What does this fold into?
Amino acid sequence: TDEPHRLKLVTTNQLIQFYGSLKEIEQLDERLVRCHKSYIVNKIQLQALDVKRQHIVLKSGKTVPVSRRMIQSIKALLKGD
It folds into this structure.
């Protein structure tokens, strides 16, 4: 999220901005998971979890913050892969 109701979708090769809510996006596909109040990630793109720094490393090398509340569920996702 950036501005209220304005979302940024980051793909492997482009950036798309549009209006909507994270709750709506999260429900579009079962591969999408909320990891922070302002971030949703694709489970397929998860590579590692850095608990100490509280962020997720994606396959692209980018990092995304993860909330303390969501660390255990992200750990479970990574173990399941």
The longest helix spans residues 71-80. Helices lie at 22-26, 71-80. Strands lie at 6-10, 15-19, 32-36, 39-42, 46-50, 55-58, 63-65. The CA atoms of residues 5 and 21 lie 6 Å apart.
